[in-house]
Amino acid sequence: MKTHFNVVVLLANDLQRTRQYLTETLGFEVAQEHPDQTVEFKAVGGAEVALIAATAAFRAAGAYYWFIVPDFEGYYQQLRQAGANIVKPPHNTPFGKVFVVETPDGHIFTFHGGEGA
């Protein structure tokens, strides 16, 4: 059986705080919202990202999420100005130039201008 990747669901300790960080700081756009339960973000060219409220406090670990951005340098500057928690500034990797951001819950987002940008 072949599968098609559909959605990444991230836990959030404080759903509204994490929603605000993803929208106001990282520029994600909300597609659908169920107050105090879930927030779904618009998917562009790939899997959807959604948030659900955690039932117990936690710190994310063990996964990295990679996003392609068409204007790598412009987006990096936008996130710097918005106060994103940039844990690794732009640097070269075997997959091209990337930078890394951490969400309030400890999710690690890597952004690059790679193929498909």
Query: What sort of overall outline do the alpha carbons produce when their principal axes are compared?
Result: globular
User: Under CATH, the topology is which?
Assistant: 2,3-Dihydroxybiphenyl 1,2-Dioxygenase, domain 1
Helix/strand order, N-terminal first: EHEEEEHEEE
The CATH class turns out to be Alpha Beta
Strands, total number: 8
Q: Outline the low-pLDDT stretches.
A: none
Tell me the strand percentage band. Answer: 35-45%
Supply the CATH superfamily name: 2,3-Dihydroxybiphenyl 1,2-Dioxygenase, domain 1
Q: What does the average pLDDT come to?
A: 91
CATH architecture: Roll
As a whole number of angstroms, the C-alpha radius of gyration is: 14 Å
Biggest sheet overview: 4 strands, mixed
Distance between the termini: 29 Å
Provide the number of structural domains.
1
Helix proportion range: 10-25%
Number of helical runs?
2
Quickly give the structural class.
alpha/beta
Kindly report the oligomeric state of this protein: single chain
Strand order of the largest sheet: 1-4-3-2
Domain VOC: 4-114
Pfam families: Glyoxalase
Protein name: VOC domain-containing protein
InterPro entries: Anthracycline_SecMetBiosynth (IPR052164), Glyas_Bleomycin-R_OHBP_Dase (IPR029068), Glyas_Fos-R_dOase_dom (IPR004360), VOC_core (IPR037523)
